[in-house]
Amino acid sequence: MIDQNILEKFYSKIFSVPKKRVSVAIGITSIVLASYLNGISGKSFFAMRYFFIGLALLALLLFFGRLLGSGFNSRRIFFFALFMLVLIEIADVIAIHLLSPELIVVSPSAIAFILSVALYFTSERFSYLAPLLILALLYPVDYLFSFSAPHRGLAYALSSLAGVSLSYLFVSFMSGKAGRIVVSDILRDFVLYWLKGEPGIFERRIKMYSEVREGKVFVIRVGDATLIAPEFHPGPFRDIGGAKLVERALGRFSMFLHAASTHATNPSTGEDVEAIIRVTPEFEGARARKPYSVEGKRFRLKIYPFTTFTLIIIHGKESIDDIPSEVRDIAERFFANPIVVDGHNAYAERYELTPEDMTEIYMLMEKASQISPDECGRFEAYFTSADYESQSICGKLALLLMSFEGERHGILMVDANNMDIELREYLERVGKKYGVELDIITTDNHSKTGVSPKIGYKPAGMVDAEAIESFLERAMANAKLSEVEVEFGVASVRVTVMGERFFKDVDAAFKNYGERAMYLFILFSALNYALTFALSSVII
Predict the structure, then answer these.
(1) What is the CA radius of gyration of the chain?
(2) CA angle (420 as vertex; 415, 425 as ends), nearest 5
(3) What is the pTM of this model?
(4) pLDDT at 47
(5) HSE (side-chain half, CA atoms, 13 Å) at 42
(6) N- to C-terminal Cα distance for the chain?
(7) What's the rounded Cα separation, in Å, for the pair 453 and 12?
(8) Which helix (H) or strand (E) holds 166?
């Protein structure tokens, strides 16, 4: 099986191409090298051959790219043309040094399979006629810079047709189903969305496989600060649907709390995100009572027991990631109007919640419910935020500082995908220095996941410690705690979400097609070369 760690490592780099000046340097180097290797009758002849074939390829790909609605921009087309040229140069090496120099006339047809597959998965309006026309229009340039041989045109045409036929067989294989998903369709739309930067392309495809789900959106007002905790998950694809949930929520609310939820509840589209953040709950007042904690082997629960609702923040003592919504069902057995927040603050690679974890959380909930919270006569609060962005932090830091009759607690929100536990523990120590027990949470924001080929899934780490500590120092120095009112509201909203079945189907697609498709692609690419020279050797 394919190593998934390797796939994740290169996930955000898969569409990366060099800058044009680097591509030009590679192109010149390849032409010089290929001309030197193949220059049996004159190196200048081959230099002109590769220069003009490359130029023709570039012009044809630019023209057909526009005609087919290609997702390739000019830089990607330039690099793709260079890649096709290198494949032709390799075919020339095979012909000249292993077979017969006369066969270089069919070398461009050896790229037919890869050319056709690439056009299929990167174009909005693909036709198998397109790669055939590109190869046909390339033939006159190829003909001028080749050696005399009988039936050159016939050999070239049949070889091109054979290569495009292989691409048809490959796409037919990829058009199989994994559950409800047609693999080639979803892969093609994903590639197009990625290349064009148009979320709507992939959102339309996702919505075909989505399900309608009703979920709760909790809103807490603490003075002028508003905290939103929707039971919908942020993510997982850079700017698709739920990946914009945190950003859009923080444009309207002061803080985003990652309520118990998994990727099954990812909103499918931007419209679904808007429906979530624009809910208008009815509010009721709440009086503060003193917070407390309970802890076990794997988790610590921080309880903020207000009179009309209970805010429960789950901290992973060693690791935590995506607490499922069933945990809120557990909380409802013990608390009235519980808001269960996944602290998402102890990153561990490939962590999954275990049955033992669920059992411990249940036991901690039960234990916490048996504790009678102390009343709080005077509740004060102070809120501040700051813009901050790094490779892992998506744009915002926020602190809600609260005093329960002089006992100070704070919720520090770091707008990131997750957090290294080393950073969390460091920031907790910073809080204690100021006499504050800090609950440090992240938003599980996916807006940076794959935004750039240089940025993938990266939790906040010690590289961000100095900036966050500086924010905390300023906040503590400027904090002006004052008595404020607390209000709580909850509303239900129905939106389309990706659903657990969607991810199961995608997983099945990877398992059933991913590895086999890779091997089949390599096999057909090699077979295209073999058929090109086998057919041509018979005809010429």
Answers:
(1) 30
(2) 95
(3) 0.84
(4) 83
(5) 7
(6) 43
(7) 5
(8) helix 152-174
For residue 251, give every residue at least 6 positions away whose Cβ sits within 8 Å of its Cβ, in sequence order, or none.
none
SS3 string of 80-132? HHHHHHHHHHHHHHHHHHHCCHHHHHHHHHHHHHHHHHHHHHHECCCCCHHHH
Cβ contact 439:431 at 8 Å: no
In the block, residue with structure tokens 């999954």:
352
CA–CA gap between residue 436 and residue 439 (Å, rounded): 9
Closest CA to 92 of 133, 134, 140, 53: 53
Nearest to 237 by CA among 278, 196, 267: 267
Contacts of 86 (CB under 8 A, 6+ apart): 30
**Burial class of 2 by CB neighbour count within 10 A (0 to 12, 13 to 18, 19+):** exposed
Calpha distance 193→197 (Å, rounded): 5
In the block, tokens 């399900």 appear at: 211
Helix (H, G, I), strand (E, B) or coil at 505: helix
Q: How many CA atoms lie within 13 A of 469 on its CB side?
A: 16
Strand partners, 230: 217
pLDDT for the residue numbered 12 = 46
Task: Output the CA–CA distances (angstroms, integers) from residue 18 to 13, 428, 454, in the order listed.
Answer: 11, 42, 13
Question: In this structure, what token pair is assigned to residue 342?
Answer: 């996944």
Measured between alpha carbons, how far is 122 from 187 in angstroms, rounded to an integer? Answer: 10
Angle between helix axes 183-196 and 199-208 (nearest 10 degrees) is 160
Those residues whose C-beta lies under 8 Å from the C-beta of residue 58, and which sit 6 or more positions away, are 77, 78, 81
Which backbone phi and psi does 475 adopt, to 5 degrees?
A: -65, -45
The pLDDT of residue 452: 47
Q: What's the pLDDT score for residue 39? A: 65
CA distance 382 to 366: 31
* Residue 5: count of CB within 10 angstroms of its CB: 10
**Inter-residue contact 230 to 218 (CB < 8 Å):** yes
Rounded CA-CA distance 439/413 in Å is: 8
Q: Is residue 286 classed as helix, strand or coil in its secondary structure? A: strand
Position 275: which residue type?
A
Of 403, 405, 415, 475, which is closest to residue 443 (Cα–Cα)?
415
Give the phi and the psi of residue 150 in degrees, each rounded to 5: -70, 145
Strands in 131-275 per DSSP E: 177-178, 181-182, 211-222, 225-230, 255-256
Tell me how crowded residue 442 is: count the other CB atoms within 10 A of its CB.
Answer: 29
Given the structure tokens 């189903």, which residue do they identify? 177
Question: With contact defined as beta carbons under 8 Å apart, do 227 and 211 qualify?
Answer: no
The three-class DSSP label of residue 54 is helix
Q: What is the pLDDT of residue 335?
A: 95
Residues of the chain with pLDDT under 50: 1-13, 451-455
Whose CA is closest to 448, among 390, 370, 535? 390
Whole-number Å distance between alpha carbons of 410 and 393: 20
Q: Give the ranges where 283-339 is alpha helix by DSSP (H).
A: 326-332
